[in-house]
Amino acid sequence: MENNAKVMQPKSQAPHHKIDSELDEFRKIMEVPSTFEEGFRWSALFGAIFVALLMVPGAIYMGLLAGQGIGGAAQWVTVILFIEVAKRAHRYLNKSEIFVLFYMAGALMGAATTGGLLWHQFFIQSDAAAANGITDLLPRWYAPPLTSDSYAKRSFFNVDWLPPIAMMFIGSFVGQLSHLVLGYGLFRIASDMEKLPFPMAPVGAQGIMAMAEDIESKNNKNDEDSWRWRVFAIGGALGLAFGLIYLFLPVISGALTGTAIQIFPIPFSDFTDKTGQYLPAVATGINWSFGNLISGMVMPYWGMVGSFVGLIITFVANPILYHYGLLSDWKTGDDTVVTLFKNNIDFYFSFHIGIALAIALAGFAQVFSSMAKARKARKNRTQDVAMGSWHDVPKGRGDFPAWFIILCYFLVTMTYTGLSIGLLIWHHGGWTRDIRNVLIVLIILGFVYTPLISYVTARLEGMVGQVVEVPMIREAALILSGYHGIAIWFLPLPIANYGSMTVFYRQCELTGTKFTSIWKTKLVLFPIILLATIFFMNFIWGLDRIPSVAYPYAQKMWELNAANSCVMFTATMGEYSMFEKAFNMWIIGAGTLFGVVLFSGMSMLGAPIMLTYGVVRGLGQSTPHTILPSFIGALIGQFYFKKRLKLKWRQYIPVVAAGFSCGMGLITTVGVGVTFLSKAVIKLPF
Q1: What is the largest CA-CA distance in the chain?
Q2: d(CA 315, CA 162)
Q3: Within 13 A of 324's CA, how many CA atoms are on the CB side?
Q4: HSE of 173 in the Cβ direction (CA atoms, 13 Å)?
Q5: DSSP H helical ranges for 134-194
Q6: 632 near 296, Cβ under 8 Å?
Q7: 377-386, 588-597, 599-608: least confidently modelled range
Q8: Are 30 and 209 in contact, with CB atoms under 8 Å apart?
Q9: Selection from 682, 657, 623 nearest residue 269 by Cα
Q10: Helices marked H in 188-266
Q11: pLDDT in the model for residue 218
């Protein structure tokens, strides 16, 4: 922790809300510095080009191969490389420059691992879309019709793909702008005015401090301050060792011999077909990634316990539900993918809506209760309650005026609404009554629901590090509009939850980075991100059909994802569909009631906040593939490392996780490079 750091909020002005001991432990990891520095330099531009050319293709490939990107690895490799280059030039990067580099690389990786156009070409050709009669109804701005020769050539550089690519550019630009500016406005309200602590924000900022402390300690010849770098190196060594076995071996063996050697099955080992006779309708298996253990140590312990309890409840409940005919479609011998889909249609689609609704109600209740207590305390002029003003901001942080935020919100919402209506008019060949109804729904979503849910989420993130989402609000609004067809599901709707961005700005503040650095970086990044993503998606699609045996994760999971997507898409087709089978108001009501009762009971018993959220969330269709190893990691961290290291453990483990991600991603990126070289070689006929 920085010795010269100053807390912007004096102890006499502590927040008025209750923070349990675990959240308070996270909150104390870091403090806000007293000065802010510019982080946007030429290094950010060079870093963007480096990531775009070397890391983006690896991220896309690994997402198809193992269902996980190399986002963390790309970020840390970029940061480490540029730190070392700067040292050779007798220059040292400050915390702000490192944070901007880290953010820039993460933004590139986020754009590369969303599936994007590769998912679009798969979905229109998928069995699920064909079985539900969706293939011929997909709009042109989502994917060209199957008659396009681009599918045979496996190329996005075709005139038929211009509408989807144009939508990708427009949607990305408007989306990034709105999240940055409107998330900033909510941060000003939650942090500067309401003085909320954001207890989970320091977790994401610890790795940046590791890099900065290493530079400062070597510059000051003080090895005592470089503990974060040593811890980061330990995590990096673990990542290199495990990545060599888990991901590098399958990638390199597949590239050189055509047969991937997997010591640990990717994406997971599936035991469902063997355990079905003992645990009917229960998906069993395990994900062997060592990263799950580490993530279990990083996350709040009681949150991991809650997820595990939810898993146990699922193990008990599913056989009972199967016995009473509520999970009637499941058959002995079904694997994990089939089991999850059938259970989803029979019961968990509706039950999960009910559970999510219970969580949303609890979040709203918690926020409004906190607001009521704050008003009462201010009315009584309680001495330990402080309420800041909009103009009360740290000097030199780089803040914008309120009118700019309001103008941006209005323009973004109107752009989304106007573009959506224009696309529907193009799709249907003119104005219809359905389009009029959709316009009314879009205005309500953009100007009523979005600001409300964003503000509630910002407050809850500031208090306990949780996000509020009202389940199925988008889907319900589109269905109730009375629209017939499926084009409505692929519109750029003016609905978003900007509250989660407040945590990012808190991390930016904790590292002493001027906010203007982030906005400058985003303007430079935007074209580089999109051009690199489209180019390398086209290159990878040209190497092989997607999905195929070369990409085990995509081959195993994408058809399930497509089938689940079709459940909602068929809801507006005007005929009996999977949605009508899956949507059951009685089950939704039962899920809501059960979630509210459980949430209320645990709160009255004084259970930790993270345990309560974990258990209630776990009541959805939990699977052990990642939950079990994460829970084991949480136990190891809580009862071994934390007892030995005390509060330092909460400072150490985020840095270990950052190093692990860096090491594992770095070794697999080497393998991906070899794969690209081997498949790009032109074979001579002699």
Answers
A1: 90
A2: 48
A3: 6
A4: 15
A5: 150-153, 162-187
A6: yes
A7: 377-386
A8: yes
A9: 623
A10: 201-220, 227-243, 249-257
A11: 55
Question: Phi, psi (5° rounding) for residue 290?
Answer: -65, -20
Q: Cβ(566)–Cβ(579) under 8 Å?
A: no
What pLDDT, on a 0 to 100 scale, did the predictor assign at position 259? 75
Please report where in the chains the tokens 């030995």 appear, as a residue: 644
Distance CA 297, CA 659 (A): 14
What CA–CA distances, in Å, run from 360 to 94, 191, 353, 640, 653?
A: 40, 22, 10, 35, 30
Given a contact cutoff of 8 angstroms between Cβ atoms, the answer to whether 194 and 387 are in contact is: yes
Of 645, 669, 511, residue with least CA distance to 231 = 645
**DSSP assigned state of 285:** E
Residue 684 confidence (pLDDT): 43
pTM (2 d.p.): 0.72
Please give the average per-residue pLDDT across 72-78, as a whole number.
Answer: 65
pLDDT given at position 398: 79
Q: How many CB atoms sit inside 10 A of residue 405's CB?
A: 17
Domain boundaries, the chain: 11-26+115-200+264-645
Q: Is 612:378 a contact under the CB 8 Å cutoff?
A: no
Q: What is the rounded distance in angstroms from the CA atom of residue 185 to the CA atom of residue 191?
A: 10
Measured distance CA(298)–CA(296) in Å, rounded: 5
Residue with tokens 């190196």: 233
The residue assigned the tokens 């140590």 is 297
Residue 539: both structure tokens together: 């290159």
**What is the H or E stretch that residue 286 is in?**
strand 285-286
